[in-house]
Every structure is written in structure tokens, then in C-alpha cells.
Amino acid sequence: MKYIVLLGDGMADYPLGELNGKTPLEHARIPHMDEIASRGTIGLIDTVPPGFTPGSDVANLSVLGYDPSVYHTGRAPLEAASMGIPLDRNDVAFRCNFVTLGDEEDPIMVDFTAGHISSEEGRELIEELNERLGSQDCSFYPGVGYRHLMVWRKGPAQMRTIPPHDIVGRTIGEQLPQGDGASEIRELMNSAREFLPRHRVNGQRAAGGKAQANAIWLWGEGSAPVIEPLTARYGITGGVISAVDLLRGIGYYAGLESIPVEGATGYIDTNYEGKSEKALEYLKTHDFIFLHVEAPDEMGHEGNIEGKIRAVEDFDKKIVGPILNEAGNLGDFRIAVLSDHPTPLSIKTHVADPSPIAVYSSNTSENLRNGSSFGETAARQSGIVVSPGHRFMDLFIQRWSEFVEEKRNAG
Known about the structure:
- With 411 residues, the protein is α/β, with parallel strands linked by helices.
- It has 15 helices and 15 strands.
- A hairpin with a 2-residue loop joins strand 5 and strand 6.
- The mean pLDDT is 96.
């Protein structure tokens, strides 16, 4: 049996007046996701437990079968694992975004991506940052695009930080880190603001009319988690395909091989075709693939309606379609398509509402055929909710037939 999970980050959304009361998923042309929903089983998945911030770290841990209340220690340590940065038991990792702040006395968070700064530019800036501000206890590491990492050796793990994408357009004064060790973190952020605007990279970006990476934002702190690999739990082999360190890091702890794809950017220009081709090739010799696409989430954060619709349609056409069409050549299979959480265009940030999920099996008895399309309304009308969401992976791999039969009898 082949197990295929295709996840469009932040695809789910709210109805929009501009789309005649439909969501982007319901408005977009997505024939392949609709086919999975109509031939398989559609419902909702509840990935964010009460009390948790609705982020991709929490939601994707749930999707892969890990209860966040047990396994979630922070976002940054997951990214550290992907980047090959070892963390001792008392080390604390922080996500380090390059951001664009306004020039007000209490500056506004203008852009949490610094104009989607390139990885090459980001690396040059982070290396300079480490030279100037790094120490025996504090080190900065380059990542992808605007997403980087800082590690505080033997640092305090209890702090309140806010994701920068949650405060776009707002002043940062009341959103700065609070708690034990926060004064040191704020000092690092202030020191970075003193030299970053004068850096050569930002001079070139300003000359080209691009947003400047004139500040850093430290958040998502945590220590290394202890997680049983998914592959060991189910006795399977598998891999993860994603452009972002967070998902590759979760995959690392889940025992999944990270499969590189040239041109995978974590943005709307990502190499969709390369991802689907690598997934199909990998499945010839392995049991499980988790393929993640970040673009819908990025468009949600930007409030870009056309961009989100395009990202959803590209995901369907270039990821879901090719894999669905070829899955039968791999033998028996189950394929799931889902959003980890909604990123509504109207508020430009994550929410904890359940998201649509559809599963199609090559074994026809495992399909309820309870929907006609893939979207929020159809998923809600199905009456099926996988809650808590971390139950999903066990159902998907071990008990899907029982789950469907239970719903069929209850129907």
C-alpha cells in the first residue's frame, strides 16, 4: 500500500464577497481535488487543539499523528533539525525572520518577509549578523529566504513571543518578547536595527525599489522535542517534500527522508512539477510521501485573492493531478488532500477552524462518495470531523476501512 498526503498550506479560507460568497477553494478550478472528494470521502480535520496558537508547526504535527499537547515544544527547534543544527537539552532555538519595519518611534510591522528577500541576500545578512552579534552563547544560522534561525545555548525556554505575520500593519511596541530572558532578545533585535539598514544588501534593494530587511524578529522559541518516528510506529519507509525548514524538520523527527527539489521556493513561483515528479519517483521504492506546498499560505498572509486562487489551482493542476493520475500504476494506494489550517484573506493570518480533507482509496469499499466537490461547505455538510486531528494518521494508515465503515453505518 502507498500512502500519499498532499497538503496545501493555508488553503482553507472564509467566504468572500468578491467571490460571490465562495471561498477561494470553492471558486477555484480544482477538478482533481474535486475528483478525490467525489470518488472518496470528504470531511473536516481539526488540527489545532484549544489553547494553541494556530500555526503550521502545531497543525502539521497533528496531521502527521503527533498530539501537540504532548510533542510541541516550539517552532524553531523543528526548523533547527531540518537545518542540521544540533540542540543540547538546555539549548533554545528561535526563528529569526528578516522583516521590514517602518521608521516611526514605535514602528509598524510593514512586511514580515522583507519583500521575500532571496536566500542569497539573507545568507549574507545573517552571516554579518552573526559576526556582529553572535557569541559563545548565541549563534545565528542561515535558512531559506527570510526564514533563519538563532540558537541561545542554555537559554530560558519560557517566553512570550508573537509571530510577525500576525502583526502586519500594527505597531510592534506591545508585541515585543516578554518574560524570562526577553530583555536580552529585545536587545539583540534593537542592535540588528542599528546596522542592517546600512548594509550593502539593503542599499541595493533600496536602489531597486525593493523592501529592505532593516530588522530581525525573534519568535517561535523552544527546546528539542522527543518524538517517536512515524516510520517506526507503522513499520514503513517514507519521505517529505517541502521548501520550508519547518516541514522538513517535522519530517526529520517523524523519520521521513527529506527529498530535495530544485527550484522549490516556498512561494507562488515554486517548482510544482518538480515536486510531483520527485514524489512519484520516490513512491516506486517507498511506502509514504508527505508533499507540502507553502504558496496558498503566503498568499493568504498577503491578502492576495488572485494569488491565492492561482496557488490553489497550480497545486491542483501540477501536484494533485499528476500524482492522482499515476497513483494506480504504483499498486494499492490511499491519497489524502487537505489544508493544515485556514489562512483567511480577510484577516491575513492563521485561524484554528477545522479545514477540509478528502481521502480516496484504490479499494472502492473504503470510499464513502459523500461529496461532489472539495471545499469548506462540502466538508462541513458531510458531518465528518476528524477531531482531534492527530488521530488522522493512525486512521489513514491502519484503520481507514474501519473508519469508513463506521461512518457508513452511522449514516
